[in-house]
Specification:
By secondary structure, this protein is an alpha+beta fold. It has 2 domains: 146 residues, PurM-like, N-terminal domain (60s Ribosomal Protein L30, Chain: A); 169 residues, PurM-like C-terminal domain (Phosphoribosyl-aminoimidazole Synthetase, Chain A, domain 2, Alpha-Beta Complex), CATH 3.90.650. The chain is 32% helix and 23% strand. The protein is built from 10 helices and 13 strands. The strands form 3 sheets. Strands 8-10-7-11-9-12-13 form a 7-stranded mixed sheet, with helices on both faces. A 4-stranded mixed sheet has the order 3-6-4-5. It has a two-stranded antiparallel ribbon with strand order 1-2. Helix 2 runs parallel beside helix 3 and helix 4 crosses helix 5. The model has no long low-confidence stretch (mean pLDDT 94). The structure holds adenosine-5'-diphosphate (ADP) and magnesium ion.
């Protein structure tokens, strides 16, 4: 619905593979000390000296993970980097490099890839990571994107999913459910647009949640904040699939249980009002929505004074000795077992 029909369309075939790669990547100049060689050879060369290297990859497929009808390509480029940096930060590491691989069908002109790379470049600049390589190829249908993010951390700073202990506090950053609701709004507008192409969507009343969906930010700031507060989480994970599935991961890997308090789950007022409009339960949306890219972590209780009152951090529960038993404690004090209704990429929709 957002496609501009007046834009120029240079067919990719007219570029040649190497011309295309050069054209798209010529602006990428490494700034990280650890980047010895970036784009331009058979492989990048990195040097992390006395740090551990942290690596994570995500694959994004058109029609499964994104819909170009309402996802502008610039945002897609930005988001592709964010979802990967989020995984690096979830290890309490600093993101330093990314590689970006794309496969596109011939329905994509050069201008589309330029737009995508604008988003990539913007994310790389803001987050201080070098684009050090990638691959470019064709696909028979649609667009595929694979980003690999690389980061560094001192060995003693790395935080795994597996370190949570009984009595630890469970903490989440930011607020939850917005990205899922933003998607619901965009899909609703897209359905209307399909019937009436003259329909001009008014997304203004939903700006926060639409932005949460289209332009998420990875929580680099939280890694800096934790360092400043001198708090090392005992376990950590990023909230990409919804709170319930992430909590279950922490419980399983750490061999503990959890009590999560429904009334503590942080929700933006726009999330609450949009849930009312769509007839959705806001707790369910926060638990199962996904794509919020917040961080979920546990800390020892004695660290509580250090994080108390910080507007970025909300204590939502605590860990229990009851191995792998995670419960939502509802507003009326019922204990509801948390199930992985998070987000299952193989579920039929
Ligand atoms: P090879 O044939 O060895 O795979 P390429 O010609 O594909 O090499 O790549 C040449 C250089 O350009 C390499 O440094 C590679 O990492 C980089 N590169 C290729 N495609 C992309 C891309 N889409 N984004 C960023 N860098 C890329
Ligand atoms: Mg290649």
């Amino acid at each position: 619905m957002l496609e501009d029909k007046n834009k120029e369309r240079t067919p990719l075939e007219s570029m040649g593979e190497f011309g295309l790669i050069d054209h798209l990547t010529k602006g990428f100049k490494p700034v990280q000390e650890s980047t010895v060689k970036g784009i331009g050879d058979d492989a990048a060369v990195l040097d992390f000296k006395d740090h551990k290297t942290v690596v994570s990859t995500d694959l994004l497929v058109e029609g499964v993970h994104f819909n170009l009808a309402y996802m502008p390509l610039k945002h897609l480029g930005y988001k592709s980097i964010m979802v990967n940096l989020s995984d690096i930060y979830a290890m309490n590491a600093e993101a330093t490099q990314v590689t970006v691989s794309i496969a596109v069908s011939n329905r994509f002109p050069l201008e589309a890839l330029e737009e995508f790379y604008e988003g990539v470049a913007m994310a790389a600049k803001i987050y201080g990571v070098d684009v050090v390589g990638g691959d470019t190829t064709s696909s028979t249908k649609g667009m595929l994107i694979s980003v690999t993010a690389i980061g560094k951390a001192r060995e003693e700073d790395v935080v795994y999913r597996s370190g949570a202990k009984e009595h630890d506090l469970l903490v989440v950053t930011g607020d939850l459910g917005g990205a899922y609701l933003g998607l619901q709004v965009l899909e609703r507008e897209n359905e209307v647009f399909k019937v009436n192409p003259n329909h001009q969507p008014d997304l203004e009343p939903y700006s926060y949640i639409v932005e949460r969906q289209l332009k998420p930010e990875a929580r680099k700031d939280i890694i800096a904040l934790l360092k400043e507060l001198e708090v090392k989480p005992t376990s950590m994970i990023d909230v990409s699939d919804g709170l319930s599935s992430e909590i279950l991961h922490l419980c399983k890997e750490s061999g503990v249980g959890c009590h999560l308090y429904e009334d503590k789950i942080p929700l933006d007022p726009m999330v609450i009002s949009t849930c009312e409009e769509f007839g959705l339960d806001s707790t369910l949306v926060a638990m199962s929505g996904g794509e919020d890219y917040e961080l979920l972590f546990t800390i020892d209780q004695k660290e509580f004074p250090k994080i108390k009152g910080n507007p970025n951090l909300t204590v939502v529960g605590h860990m229990t000795a009851d191995k792998e038993a995670a419960y939502l404690i509802s507003r009326n004090d019922a204990q509801i077992p948390i199930t992985a209704q998070g987000w299952n990429s193989f579920a039929k929709t």
